[in-house]
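tool_call: predict_structure(chain=1)
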Amino acid sequence: MNKLAVFDFDSTLMAGETIAIIAGELGLRDEVEKATEKAMRGEIDFFESLTARVALLKGLEAAKVDEICHNLPYTKGAAAAIKALKNAGYTVLCFSGGFKNATGFAKNILGYDAEFSNILHSKNGILTGYVGGEMMFSDSKGLMLKKMQELLGVLPKNTVAVGDGANDLSMFKYSGTRVAFCAKDILKSQANVVIEEPDLSVLPEILKL
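tool_result:
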């Protein structure tokens, strides 16, 4: 029996929002955090919010972005939860509306099997303010999850999805276990597991692994 677990990255596997932390380099953290909050509550379209926020990063050195993304604070219990899931036979993936600079680096630290995220475009080592990738739209995570289920032969009842915001809703559509982790109300309303403490080590216990 094949099993699949998918985690969001920002504010789920990582304690914060990558784009807001990067924006701090330009003194724009508050502005970006407010826009991110609106998107995570489902108040504004995810694609429009993402592209507008990334545009604010134009001019930053790509090397500085990498440095920030390689020193992010991971959520307590994240690596332990992923290890427990893998030991129980799950394929573990990370779907992020954030950036490969962060999710690609974290893969070997947290231990998930693969990650799908977005890419900050740069030219001559400088961010252009453009972004592209696999997780650009509000339904991107759900569509990718469906593809992964078909590829791996996993049924929705054997699928766990863990997230915190509105752009994680599309994953819940295809998941038997829908985990809202320190989440916005819009996601909690569709969850069948709610974790309020910022500690993922409780997840294996909840799943009875």
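agent: The chain has one domain: 3-206. Proceeding to next step.
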